[in-house]
User: Which sequence fits this backbone?
């Protein structure tokens, strides 16, 4: 197959796309590593191309480019309604088409939700809000996400979604329905399809609304946060339920794991404090105390299990529907490789991520001029009450409160260090939020 793309046009085209993450680095070359022709009704077609971008410095990236041949230059095929329908049909009909280095295969799960009826012709609308991917709503029942920046292998969002949909009863999530995979040397997950949930509220915005309402959270909202903790506990029970899938089967938590995690946090602390202390000199005086919080993890007698976790949990990764919470986006932390995201871990790492989100909500309303109040403490307490009630006696958690608290404390520290590095690089005005949390940590127990 001859690649139907003018390679000389690609660097400029990529730099002008919102989903292209390499704008800060000079592009050395762009090459097509795989491509497949997808036929449409009426004799039309479009091309799914995987391109590799190499830079003057750093590692190369791969991107998915659905393109059409229309005059000069590169035309995004996803601007065409018929292309959107054709791409979705490829997935739902489980079709396989050849590519230059292998094949592209649509996968559709044979679950009750996957049997839903859809009208013809398919109503489709492309969402305009995302930056890193492209999402399309089909008949207001299904949403499929075209993954722009690719990584070789099975995307954790598809792997986790498939496991939850086919091997567990957990349904507090937009259920996975299908995916598009490329197979061969350039193998990757190209798109994922989920049930579309209308009339939902982003968990972050929903929480901010309640934090803005006054100095104290209402009993009703605290009850909702207990429900959120319960949903997370149920998700962890689902992750820990497998005994026949090696990718999900729980594993014993060993002393070596605790030592490895502790050493990793200490290493991250050194890098983070060295950078942040230039702007916040007082942090240097907290170094020894913070190291103590990290090293205590290695002193905890190991109990519980390692399981698959969400891996990037915060209020932006949950949805509030009528009377319930949904958890979604199981891709994991973007800065980690697929192998790292698939690693089994302590469930308390997810708990720590959500607790940090409440601190961010309080800091956000403070920056907006909201007066201080008693919000974070009750929010944390309610969320933890719901989680502990749902997971009491669970084999994947430490069996005593002291170990639970020490591990949770260390994972919150790990999350704060990540936040400091992220904010320094992306949102310098926000870095005070995690820095202030680190400053308080000496007495926060």
Assistant:
């Amino acid at each position: 197959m001859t690649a139907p793309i003018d390679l000389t046009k690609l660097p400029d085209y990529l730099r002008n796309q919102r989903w292209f993450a390499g704008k800060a680095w000079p592009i050395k070359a762009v090459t097509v590593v795989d491509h497949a022709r997808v036929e449409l009704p009426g004799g039309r077609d479009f091309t799914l191309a995987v391109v590799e971008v190499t830079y003057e410095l750093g590692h190369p990236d791969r991107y998915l480019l659905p393109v059409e041949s229309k005059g000069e230059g590169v035309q995004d095929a996803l601007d065409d309604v018929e292309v959107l329908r054709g791409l979705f049909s490829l997935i739902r009909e489980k079709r396989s088409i050849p590519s230059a280095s292998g094949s592209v295969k649509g996968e559709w799960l044979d679950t009750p939700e996957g049997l839903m009826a859809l009208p013809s012709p398919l109503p489709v609308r492309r969402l305009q809000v995302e930056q890193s991917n492209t999402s399309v709503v089909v008949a207001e029942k299904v949403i499929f996400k075209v993954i722009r920046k690719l990584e070789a292998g099975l995307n954790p969002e598809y792997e986790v979604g498939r496991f939850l949909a086919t091997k567990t009863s957990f349904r507090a999530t937009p259920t996975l329905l299908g995916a598009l995979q490329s197979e061969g040397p350039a193998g990757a997950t190209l798109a994922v399809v989920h049930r579309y949930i209308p009339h939902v509220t982003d968990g972050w915005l929903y929480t901010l609304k309640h934090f803005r309402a006054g100095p104290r959270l209402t009993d009703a909202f605290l009850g909702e946060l207990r429900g959120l903790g319960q949903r997370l506990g149920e998700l962890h029970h689902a992750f820990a339920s497998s005994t026949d899938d090696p990718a999900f089967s729980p594993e014993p938590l060993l002393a070596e794991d605790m030592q490895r995690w502790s050493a990793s946090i200490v290493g991250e602390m050194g890098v983070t404090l060295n950078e942040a202390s230039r702007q916040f000199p007082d942090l240097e005086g907290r170094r020894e105390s913070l190291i103590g919080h990290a090293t205590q993890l290695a002193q905890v007698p190991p109990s519980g299990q390692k399981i698959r976790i969400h891996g990037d949990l915060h209020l932006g990764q949950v949805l509030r529907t009528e009377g319930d919470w949904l958890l979604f986006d199981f891709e994991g932390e973007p800065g980690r490789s697929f192998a790292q995201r698939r690693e089994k871990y302590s469930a308390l790492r997810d708990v720590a991520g959500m607790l940090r989100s409440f601190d961010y909500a309080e800091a956000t309303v403070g920056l907006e001029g909201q007066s201080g109040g008693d919000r974070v403490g009750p929010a944390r307490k309610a969320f933890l009450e719901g989680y502990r009630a749902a997971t009491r006696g669970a084999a994947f958690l430490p069996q005593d409160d002291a170990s639970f608290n020490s591990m949770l404390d260390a994972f919150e520290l790990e999350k704060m260090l990540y936040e400091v590095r992220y904010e320094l690089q992306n949102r310098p005005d926000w870095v005070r939020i995690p820095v202030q949390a680190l400053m308080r940590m000496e007495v926060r127990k």
